Every structure is written in C-alpha cells, then in structure tokens.
Amino acid sequence: MNYTLRQLRVFVAVAQQGSFSQAGQAIGLSQSAVSHSIKELEAEMGIRLLDRTTREVILTGAGQQLATRLEHLLEELHTTLLDSRSFGQQRSGTVRVAASQTISAHLMPQCLAASQRRYPEIKVTLRDRPQQWVVQSVRDAEVDFGIVVGPLAAGEFESQSILAEPFLLLCRQDDVLAQAETVYWSMLSGRTMVLQDYASGSRVLIDEALKQQQVSAEIVQEIGHPTTLYPMVEAGIGISILPALALPLPAGRPLMVRRLEPEINRTLMLIRRKNRSLSPAAEVIWQEVRQQAMLLTQQRQQMPAF
Fold first, then answer.
1. Domains in the chain, please, with CATH?
2. What GO annotations for molecular function exist for this entry (predicted)?
C-alpha cells in the first residue's frame, strides 16, 4: 500500500478530535486538506475508516482498531526520531586521532589542550606513528581521522589542507652556511646530509626538492625519529633539512636553522575515510585541529625571520 506518514497523522488527529475542522486546527491544515487526506487513505486501504454526518465524524470498527494502534506507533516513531537527533548532536565519547611524530609533538599538544578545555566530555586519544601507519590506520578505520604530510593519492580520502610550512636548513652554528647572508638550495651540493627515512611523509618531498634544485649531496644517515637529527648534526655528521613545525630547536645546543631560497613548502592535511561521516564528537575535534593550525600560521607570520 502506498500511504504516507502525513495521511496517518491526519487520520489520528481526526480520531482524537472527532472533527475535520478541529483536527485541521490541531495539525495546521485546512478542513478541506484534512478531508482530502482521509479520502486518499481510505482509497489506498480499500476500507471505510470514518462515518461522516453533518454534525460529527464517527470511527468505523476498522477505523477504531487502526486509530488505537496508530497512536502508539506514531508516538514511538516520534520518540525514535528525537533520540536519533539527540545522538546526532551528541558531543561526547572517544575520538581517535593519528599523526606522525613531528605533528604529534609540535601541533597536537595545543589541539589536545584546547579540546579538553572546550569539550571536557570528549576524550581524544592520540596515536603517534610514522606516516605510512597513520594512512593505513585511517584506511582501516582504526582511527577517526589522521594528520599527514600531503599530497596523497587523489581520491582515496576526504582531505583538507590545514597548514603550509617551509623546509629549513639545520646546521651547526659554526658551519659556513650559518654565516651566509642568504642560503640557497644550490649551496647544499657536495655536503653530507642526515635525513629522516622514508617512513616520514617529508622525505619524498625533500628528495624532490633536492632534485628540482639540482643539489647533489651525500645522504650519510637515514634515521627514523626526528629528534635524532639534532645530536647527529651537532656531532658534525652532516647538515639536515627539517620543516618549520619542528621548531623550536632544543635549548643549549650549538645549532641553528636558516631559510632556504627559493622557499619550498610542505602541506599538512587532515584525512578521513571517503564517503564516511565523522561522529559529532570527531567533527568538532577535526575543526579544533584546523583552528589550532590557523593560529599557528598566524603566530609564525608575526615571528622574525630565521
């Protein structure tokens, strides 16, 4: 049968009010619209539900049985829809986020602190892993969303760029490059370098930058954790390249960073599974990460040059 929810509600209103006009007033319809809706319902069901006289509307036996059951069912449906809407607006529960080490160390602490202040009923768990693991954990739905270095393969994830930051030279304070007025990528040719390995989302971008700038350098060490770069550069094993997000440098070490010309940036992106909605709690944390990235960008713009 091809009946509508509106027809059923109109019928219940008539049964409760005992009048087309009063039912129309109760549900915001004209008397003629109520009458037309009842006729359509009766025609669709193939039975008479109401006996009409000039003075009153009386339920038939079939109409009485239907009205008694429909009142309960429509009330249950209304309650179910309200519960669903309440769940859809709920901002509580656990949100799982994955990010690589540098992002976890230098962006996520501010995000976690702000989220805790604004949404105390939401628990955010951070998984600090290499980029390949972050991507796979989003793909496998082990986390709600991830923060990675872009770009990624087109079309696999829903993504949003949140931060662009330059690559910088990391060297000792007594290095010849530390004294140069301007440091160009070409000046890195012939130098030994210490870089993160390919578990880092930045490594492919650095390789592309070196190739684009025609830099021929010897990569003498490839390390997994970004903080290992500092003691290796300090020990004179080689110079390095790191993103601005890795700042500030550890205190008390004879190291410095210099801008590289031309400026080459990396982009941080939020990613989630394609065609899958975030929970209300995960959505507000996604937006909080975006907001903190914007604030970080604004702070960097106000800082003096390196």
1. 5-88 (1.10.10.10), 95-161+268-302 (3.40.190.10), 163-266 (3.40.190.10)
2. DNA binding; DNA-binding transcription factor activity
